[in-house]
User: What shape does this take?
Amino acid sequence: MRHLLDRHILLVTGKGGVGKSTVAVTLARRASRDGKKVLLIEFESVSRAAPLFGLEEAPTEAVQIEPGLDLMGFDLLHSLHFFAVDQLKLKSLVKLALRNDSVRGFFLAMPAIKSILFLYHLYRLETAHGPDGDGRWDLIVCDMPTSGFVAGLYGVPAMVGQIFRVGPLAKTAEGMGKLLFDPLITGIVLVTLPEEMPVVETIELRNALRKKHGIDTAAIVVNGVYPTLLEPAEIAALGEAVGDGESPGSTDVHGLLWAAEVLRGRSDRAARLLPALRSAVNGRVIELPHLFKRQLPIGAIDELAAVVKTALKGT
Assistant: This one.
């Protein structure tokens, strides 16, 4: 796992609400701070990264948001235009055709069109501007939709290859397959919370990817791990010292002790769940602490990036 950031592409995914966008920004920031030229692609329409760098939304063309770090948002219509121009080489004709609602509707109604266009766009970006292209980016970090989308993404090269058996698109499908399935180029990062249901679903996804596509997970990131503040005996002793809660200020203390018990319980659950995760991926697990902040500023992202650096060094 120490070579996690040496890949060309990282696909960061997980169930909704586990903080995959935070993890994607953290990995991109860590890599750029380590001297790599990084592109962060956000798939969702609402950008999580843009506000951190003073932007309202992620642009459809890559722009630099700080030295060594570029940002781009995936837009379906923009990627459709990119695909059509790239294939037909007639920008004016494509622009005219896609103005027609019927033409746009036909393409956008195609099954798996989002997966096809995203993978095609990613493939072109990597081959043209990745380490084997002009070197604009060393690493592309993709903040992906939920894990079901990524699982389906691995079926796209075969599907396109069956439709286009010869010609440029057949070669493109072959190239997309090589891009996705080479573990030295592309790695999947699964994000979970230290709770039973997300952990179980993460392990199931990892096993499904391995069984169906032969893909192993590059790393699992456990987001929001609660610290152990007090041992049970310490909590009990403090409770006895405070008494029944009737003395001045004791109510506040009892509330804090209750919060410590809750955190202790969550920490204990994480301690029971993490060994199963480590076993599932041969120890390739990064634990990120819960920072007790509703909105994470860029300074908090840097705190998490420092944890990632330590975790990668320790593997």
